[in-house]
Amino acid sequence: MSPTVYAPSHHGETTRQWPIEDHRGLYAMYTVIATELSLFICLFASYYYLGNNKNRWAIDRPPKLHFALIMLAVLLSSSAILRWGELQVRRARYRSARIAISLTVGIGLVFLVLQSFEYREHWMTLTPWSDSYGSIFYVITTFHAAHVIVGLLLLAYVAVLPRYGPTVAPPYRPYQTVAVYWHFVDVVWIFVVLLLYVVPNMQGH
User: What CATH number labels 25-204?
Assistant: First the structure.
């Protein structure tokens, strides 16, 4: 049940307030995720729509998988560590939870470094203005990278909060709320790898 807050009245007495919904931060994050998910769906739909015009889809060979798969493993490992941190919060082991979220931030930075290496490799043969494929490829991957950066900023903010336990003022359940967003970013990358990397390589063979 949600806690009930008692606030002092003008005469020094306490009056009962409406119960505070301590999950509303999560509900707000779910709304944000629903909005962002719709944008990614539109981008994926654009990817396949542009792919139907082969005259402007001059992809000689599918993108290499090595960086994409390594980055996928990196993000999945970060989600696993952050999930472990969530469990530590529930058990009131806040020091362990803080270590977990700090490690997640570090792993997320590794992902961005790897993506910069991948871009450097792709840029030799593919640019955003090469063709429709190059354009939508960089739009989707850069859009996802922007979400990774936002996720890292949120994680870093929660990492320095003085406490992770129940609070009587916003934000409610900050650790869990930010973790939901990070897991969403990781799941999106799974679809990015499948649709932009794995499927083209399967079709190429």
Answer: 1.20.120.80
Quick check: 177 and 171 in contact, CB under 8 A?
Answer: yes
Q: Taking the model in full, what pTM does it have?
A: 0.83
pLDDT tens digits for range 10-23: 444 333 443 446 67
Give, as one character, the DSSP assignment of residue 64. P
The residue with tokens 């079709």 is 203
pLDDT tens digits, one per residue of 33-46: 999 999 999 999 99
Domain boundaries, the chain: 25-204
Q: Residue written as tokens 């807050």? A: 5
What Å distances lie between residue 196 and 70, 126, 130, CA to CA?
Answer: 15, 14, 17
Which among 57, 35, 61 is positioned nearest to 46, based on CA atoms? 57
